[in-house]
Specification:
24% of the residues lie in helices and 31% in strands. By secondary structure, the chain is α+β, with helices and mostly antiparallel strands.
Length: 186
């Protein structure tokens, strides 16, 4: 499987689990790790529950970006979060075209929702909680600029100097079932 197919499958597993609307929430975590000559993308799903400290993390393995191969984790992408055999929902051609269309660059200057992640200097993982759930903007660059201002304000509110905290940002358009490709800050 390609990296994109793995991400799509893990998002489908989380979306299926979230569709039961039973108080549990499932969030996909994708972490890039580059160190010691290795370049890997790790995959996991975190299960939480409303008004509790419930936290379960399932390791789905990683994609070796150097060797272009998937290394399975303890959890299998062939099964749902609850352990049943995963069956890909059938997609008709119009649904596939619609998903592809949402990944096209925003040429009409309409406000779009972006998910933003921050990588703080000294950290190995992208922080999905540094900025609110999504940022509405006309472009990824504008979304990252708003996110940068938000993070700097948070640092100031904590009584620290924002110039002493280096970080990088990346943004992706949010679609119904997944997010688009990451756009990195220049």
């Amino acid at each position: 499987m390609t990296k994109v197919e793995i991400i799509e499958r893990i998002n489908a597993i989380a979306n299926l689990a979230n569709s039961y609307n039973n108080g549990y929430h499932y969030e996909v975590k994708v972490n890039e790790w580059v160190k010691y000559g290795k370049d890997r993308t790790y995959f996991s799903i975190v299960e939480t529950r409303d008004n509790t400290t419930h936290y379960v993390k399932r390791d789905y393995g990683y994609y070796d970006n150097n060797a272009d191969e998937f290394v399975a984790g303890k959890a299998s992408i062939d099964y749902t979060f609850s352990g049943a055999k995963f069956e890909e929902p059938a997609k008709d051609e119009s649904e596939i075209i619609e998903v592809k269309a949402t990944k096209v660059e925003n040429t009409e200057n309409e406000t779009v929702k972006y998910t933003i992640e921050a990588l703080f200097i000294g950290s190995d993982n992208w922080d999905t909680d540094a900025v609110q759930d999504y940022v509405e903007a006309n472009s990824a660059e504008e979304a990252m600029s708003l996110a940068r201002d938000y993070i700097r304000d948070c640092i100031i509110e904590n009584g620290e100097n924002p110039d002493e905290h280096g970080f990088a940002l990346r943004a992706a358009v949010i679609t119904d079932f997944e997010h688009g490709e990451w756009i990195y800050e220049n």
